[in-house]
């Protein structure tokens, strides 16, 4: 979008170790996207750029929920989805004007912090798919493709619904097929937070991938356990070359699942693993430890569960109160946040 607007663009992915200072000092504008665990590093980069007299815009989940904090290290914050507000903001900066009428933007006006009203959810089909060639020198073995935003569920530890909403918005099938053409014979990760949230739409995409023979060599994605209840969906996933699913199992403790508002039980997890394995699709299970309902026994039972059900790969995570989540809000209200050193929130 920036290129189409006539700007020269360079994208850098990674940590500050991947950035040469000359790449910052030679820029007219620095834009930084950050999560919570990378916020401190992002702030250091923002401080350095501003010391050189270069304006800085920040976006991403962390600063969307902590804009006042971020404005100590940048000039503007784009809260939430900034696809359609980013270009108008840059135009304001070029004209030397304040972005007073641009939704979703936070900024300083003298000593006062201004939070413009939230932007509307973006019509996903009005946004072009990303041009990964802008990442100079980046070598990828798996290519990211986003087919949807939003999630109809609302787990307490997750910020997706606050960031992207509970309404499930998806890109039209033909547009996705056009994007996928460049990845035929390559590996793809569909980065949706819940790829099968709308089974009808997901099946339509997979059928067309098969019919038009626009298939990656293999692909993987994130799904909930309920995807395994749809036999037609599972067969289409396999036939279109899905070979691994990432499943948020979260816990084998029924009380923890309830406290997470997960809306699934342990039997759902067992059935999910069995069904995907029957189709020849590997399962990556993700578990979260640290709920008030958990104990050392929960950890031992989880390890036994993973081995017994032959989960192909597993990931054990510590419950982390990320800004924007109900978990963060509840712990903050109860005075139970141990630290705001965001480097520890990984």
Q: Could you characterize the architecture of this molecule?
A:
By secondary structure, the protein is α/β, with parallel strands linked by helices. It folds into 2 domains: 16-115, 3-Layer(aba) Sandwich (Rossmann fold), CATH 3.40.50.280; 140-344, TIM Barrel, CATH 3.20.20.70. It is 32% helix and 18% strand. The protein has a 6-stranded parallel β-sheet with strand order 6-9-10-11-12-13.
Proportion of strand residues: 15-25%
Task: State the total count of DSSP E strands.
Answer: 13
Give the strand order, joined by hyphens, for the main sheet.
6-9-10-11-12-13
> Compute the gyration radius: what is it?
22 Å
Number of domains: 2
The whole-number mean of residue pLDDT values reads 93
Q: What is the number of helices?
A: 13
The helix content, as a percent range, equals 25-40%
Largest sheet: 6 strands, parallel
Structural class, by secondary structure, is: alpha/beta
Q: Going by CATH, what is the homologous superfamily of the largest domain?
A: Aldolase class I
Question: In sequence order, what are the helices and strands, one letter per element?
Answer: HEHEHHEHEEEEHEHEHEHEHHEHEH
The residue ranges in which pLDDT falls below 50 over 5 or more consecutive positions are none
How is the topology of this model organized?
Layout: H1 21-25, E1 30-33, H2 39-51, E2 56-59, H3 61-65, H4 67-70, E3 76-78, H5 86-95, E4 105-109, E5 112-115, E6 142-145, E7 148-149, H6 160-164, E8 169-170, H7 173-180, E9 187-190, H8 199-211, E10 218-223, H9 231-239, E11 242-250, H10 254-259, H11 266-278, E12 282-289, H12 296-308, E13 313-318, H13 326-333
Parallel strand pairs: 1-2, 2-3, 6-9, 9-10, 10-11, 11-12, 12-13
Antiparallel strand pairs: 3-4, 4-5, 7-8
Helix pairs in contact: 8-9
């Amino acid at each position: 979008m920036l290129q189409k607007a006539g700007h020269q663009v360079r994208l850098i992915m990674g940590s500050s170790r991947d950035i040469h200072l000359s790449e910052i000092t030679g820029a007219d504008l620095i834009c930084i996207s950050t999560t919570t665990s990378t916020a401190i590093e992002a702030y250091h980069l923002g401080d350095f750029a501003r010391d050189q007299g270069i304006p800085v815009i920040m976006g991403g989940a962390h600063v969307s929920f902590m804009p006042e904090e971020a404005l100590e290290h940048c000039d503007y914050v784009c809260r939430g989805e900034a696809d359609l507000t980013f270009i108008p903001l840059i135009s304001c900066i070029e004209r030397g004007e304040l972005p007073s009428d641009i939704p979703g933007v936070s900024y300083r006006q003298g000593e006062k912090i201004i939070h413009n009203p939230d932007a509307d959810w973006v019509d996903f089909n009005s946004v072009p798919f990303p041009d990964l060639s802008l990442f100079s020198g980046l070598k990828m073995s798996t290519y990211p493709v986003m087919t949807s935003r939003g999630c109809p569920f609302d787990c307490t530890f997750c910020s997706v619904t606050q960031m992207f909403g509970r309404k499930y918005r998806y890109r039209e099938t033909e547009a996705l097929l056009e994007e996928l053409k460049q990845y035929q014979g390559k590996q793809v990760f569909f980065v949706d937070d819940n790829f099968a949230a709308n089974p009808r739409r997901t099946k339509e995409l997979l059928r067309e991938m098969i019919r038009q023979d626009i298939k990656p060599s293999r692909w993987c994605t994130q799904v909930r356990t309920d995807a395994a209840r749809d036999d037609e969906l599972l067969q289409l996933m396999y036939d279109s070359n899905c070979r691994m699913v990432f499943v948020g199992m979260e816990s084998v403790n029924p009380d923890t699942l309830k406290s997470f508002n997960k809306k699934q039980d342990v039997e759902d997890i067992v059935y999910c693993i069995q069904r995907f394995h029957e189709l020849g699709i590997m399962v990556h299970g993700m578990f979260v430890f640290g709920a008030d309902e958990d104990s050392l026994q929960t950890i031992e039972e989880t390890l036994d569960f993973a081995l017994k059900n032959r989960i192909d790969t597993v990931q054990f995570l510590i419950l982390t109160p990320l800004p924007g989540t109900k978990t963060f809000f509840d712990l903050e209200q109860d005075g139970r946040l141990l630290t705001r050193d965001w480097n520890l929130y990984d």
